[in-house]
Amino acid sequence: GVIEWINMGFTIIYGYTYEELINEKGSNIIASLAERDIQFDFIDLVANNQSLSYENKNITKSGNTLWMNTTITPMLDSQGNIERLLIVESDITELKKAASEIKKQNTIIETKNKHITDSINAAKIIQDAILPEIHEIKQYLPDLFILFKPRDIVSGDFYWFQEIQNKQILIVADCTGHGVPGAFMSMIGNTLLNEIIINNEITTPAYILEKLDQEIKSSLHKKEGRKLDVMAISICKIDKAQGTVELAAANHEVILINSGKLNQINGEMLSIGDPMSSLLTDYSYTNHTFNIEEGATSIYMFSDGFVDQFGGEDGDKFMYPQFEDMIKEISQQPIDEQKKHIEKRLAQWMSPNLDKTYDQLDDILLVGLKI
């Protein structure tokens, strides 16, 4: 094919007049195509009477490089044979530059995200190291399960255990938020509990909550009106020698079942660290004491992640009444079977059918034990 004509747009973009183009590039269309692959595509175009569209780099008369989008369309005569070819080009140099910049920025973002994720994974190693080993807890409380499902890599929920003065203290806590903010708060809470219980040997649950509330407010410089960085928590102290269980909670509920009778222990309404408690006269934490009925006493401590989880056919929250019914239904089963039942119930709730699955809303922590 011979180049017959160029328009003024071609001259403006490339800087060539028709004569200059023919003198420098020649009049043969195939020879003027810079890339061999496109030359072969052009031959196919002619053979099959099909249009051809491609992107390539071209050089202007002044030596500048341009990215062009080129479309070659055959113009047929009355017999269906190619009579001429119409070549239309669009300058896409700025689009290519923008795409290159986006790719560059995406690479930067991916690198930063990797660094952040690596740091969070390192924080998870630290957080996992702080949590007590379940097999160590079972040395003192053999009939125990812990269902722990962080929503993110690290969690704002945590559990704590210590055997002190021949008594077992088990704690379940839910710090504000989840992910990194909650995880930092959980590490602060763990450190303060170590100081209060292990170092200061304070073992009464209500008094532990009082001291923890004071220390959280002091550590985080609480100001009136702020409700950030708080902790919902429940504490259980088991004294097998005395045959008693002591419970106290802040913005948590605890379920205790004695010989089939369910007792709901409602904690104080404000979380640990909530500045509102400082404004209330005589605000205090209550110790609830129960006798252990050997082999017939079960205790369940949990964060709000399970009861607040959306699911089911209608996308509702699980809610506390349904949770309580589930606990009562399974409480007579062996402890390992209880955990399996709860895990299955949660999975079914979050994925009620093949076409519907709900994302986990929050960290989920549930501890159950038989005494």
Describe this protein's structure.
The protein has 371 residues and is α+β, with helices and mostly antiparallel strands. The protein has helices at residues 8-14, 18-25, 29-32, 36-48, 93-130, 134-137, 179-199, 205-219, 320-330, 335-350; strands at residues 52-59, 65-76, 82-91, 144-149, 157-164, 167-175, 231-239, 244-250, 253-258, 261-266, 288-291, 297-302, 310-311, 316-317, 364-370. The chain folds into two domains: 8-91, Beta-Lactamase; 131-370, PPM-type phosphatase domain (Phosphatase 2c, domain 1, 4-Layer Sandwich). Strand 9 and strand 10 (261-266) form a beta hairpin. Helix 5 packs parallel to helix 7 and helix 7 (179-199) packs across helix 8 (205-219).
Give a short overview.
By secondary structure, this protein is α+β, with helices and mostly antiparallel strands.
